[in-house]
Amino acid sequence: MSYWKHQQNGIVFVRDKDGSLLWYGMGAGKSYTSIGIIRDQQAQTILIACPKPVVKTWINEFAKHTTKNEFTIIAPTSGSVAKKVIEIKKRLDYKHDTKPKIVILNYESIWRPGLGHTYDKWKNLKDKGLIRNTNWDIVFADECQKLKSPGSKISLFFKLLKSKAKKRIALSGTPTPNSPLDIYGIYRFLDPDIFGTSFQRMRMRYAEMGGFEMRQVVKYINQAELNQKVYSIADRVETEDVIELPDFVDIPIECDLSPKARKAYDEFYKEAVLEFSSGTELTAANVLVKHLRLAQITSGIVKDDDGNEHVIDTSKLDTLEDLLLGIDEPCVIFTRFRSEVNQIRKMIEGFKKKGERPRTVCQIASQIDERDLFASGKAEICIVNIQSGGVGLNELVRARYGFYYSTGYSSGDYEQSRARIRRPGSDVTKKVLYYHIIATNTMDEVIRRAIGKKLNIIEMVLKDFSSKIHKIKKAA
Q1: Cα dist. 35→12, 41, 67, 100, 317 in Å?
Q2: Single residue among 242, 277, 299 that ends a domain in this structure
Q3: Whole-angstrom distance between the N-terminal and C-terminal Cα of the chain?
Q4: What is the pLDDT of residue 388?
Q5: What is the pairing mode between strands 381-385 and 401-404?
Q6: Closest by alpha carbon to 400, among 249, 299, 287?
Q7: DSSP 202
Q8: Of 21, 121, 257, 327, which one's alpha carbon is 20 to 30 angstroms from that of 470?
Q9: pLDDT tens for residues 81-111?
Q10: Domain limits at 380?
């Protein structure tokens, strides 16, 4: 299989750089380009870090594009971290295997003791771990938006891993899902000389802070300079520039909460606003805790003092059921909460009892991965957790109907989920239809506005709370 022109350009682009970003849209072939880079560099030790659902995708890509005798693929997908360490070390040290060795690990385990660093009870470094004790010719950070939070364990680990990687390459179609500032954690790994080693200084240079206690980004500044620095080591390819994709339509579907759910929502919202206006610190973390409960109420779920969930409304569920009954093609439903999945599965599995044509349903989430059922055609409806299942799911291309029962706070997860349906392999003669089920006069509308205007969702939620608090204080 020959390389496309943009893939050839990407291979050449990274050749003379220690760190680089391949900002490739969905389906633009970043994995095949990466294989070309490994060949071009004649690399012998290669590490590929990626989200857990994508490990299998990488294994399949090497099986598709290489021969058995070209590379040694080391990708332990089960067992404890300790067992993974033993297997990887044994295969890396096997002298009789002279083929380039490619280790594929998920972000969730790569930084943990054994693979990553170990500290004693006084938090002193005890062991750097197998990954940091190995010299890598190339380290790939796939779906590199995982590195965007500078203080996260994953991002900090890659900051330290930099010194052990001769060449560092980040891969993503959405490296800055929420803010231009997201690039900092990624570039700290790729080339810290570009934005420095202080996130606070970088933020002061490219964002103007304001709002409640100066904690929100009011506007971004010096963006031309930021972009110039980003593209000094970034090669960007938009999917539409290299692949023909079907048209798409976004369809908002509004539903009204039941009186019981409406009362629960309004009371909880009012309590939250009063709590913040009376002194509780208005931070993203504090607001999102409240918003999480509000989002659950819009899906008809409330929790009692013991943490038990109770269904108080089926407005969204009934709306989804009506839509599904009118469609006789494969569908994908994106959700946030496990309770939503249980409700939706039960509703779909009840079609037969209601005299409707039965549908087979499957699920993709952190603990359940039934993608093969959907890809093979054995299941007609696939319920996907938007956070854990938004990446690495090429199998969803079978559908052209996508339903957003609920969405999270990550624009990146949202964009990734859309691109899993509208991607190479889609029927370009048919439009992709995205249905957004929205509970009226709730936070659903705030999130939908943020998505529609491509704004930071978390900042919009904060602004909504801030505006209500300001009105209360002004009235007082």
Answers
A1: 13, 10, 12, 12, 44
A2: 242
A3: 70
A4: 67
A5: unpaired
A6: 249
A7: H
A8: 257
A9: 899 999 999 999 998 999 999 999 999 899 9
A10: 248-475
Residue labelled with tokens 């409960």: 293
Rounded to whole angstroms, how far apart are CA atoms 364 and 133?
A: 35
Dihedral angle, C-alpha 360, 361, 362, 367, nearest 10 °: -130
Exposed (0-12), middle (13-18) or buried (19+): which is 193, by Cβ within 10 Å? Answer: exposed
Point out the residues of the chain with pLDDT beneath 50.
Answer: none
DSSP assignment string, 143-193: TGGGG-STTSHHHHHHHHHGGGEEEEEEEES-SSSS-GGGHHHHHHHH-HH
Q: Do 400 and 444 belong together in one domain?
A: yes
Residues 208 and 264 in one domain: no
- Same domain? 130 vs 192: yes
Measured CA to CA in angstroms, residue 352 lies from 109, 281, 325, 348, 471 at distances of 42, 51, 12, 9, 51
Exposure string of 329-342, with b = 16+ CB inside 10 Å and e = fewer, is ebbbbbbbbebbbe
- Say whether both 207 and 274 belong to one domain: no
My answer on whether 41 and 168 are in the same domain is yes
What is the model's pLDDT at position 390?
57
Long-range contacts of 112-120 (CB under 8 A, 24+ apart): 112/81, 113/81, 114/81, 114/82, 114/84, 114/85, 115/81, 115/84, 115/85, 115/88, 116/157, 117/157, 117/160
Overall number of domains in the chain = 2
Q: Which two tokens stand for residue 466?
A: 């801030």
State the CB neighbour count (10 A cutoff) for residue 429.
Answer: 7
Give the DSSP H/E element, type plus range, for residue 142: strand 136-142
Give the phi and the psi of residue 404 in degrees, each rounded to 5.
Answer: -105, 95
Residue 22, phi then psi, degrees to nearest 5: -100, 100
pLDDT in tens, 225-261: 999 999 999 999 998 888 888 889 999 999 999 999 9
Distances (CA, A) of 194 to 186, 190, 208, 367: 11, 9, 20, 39
Q: What type of residue is 249? A: V
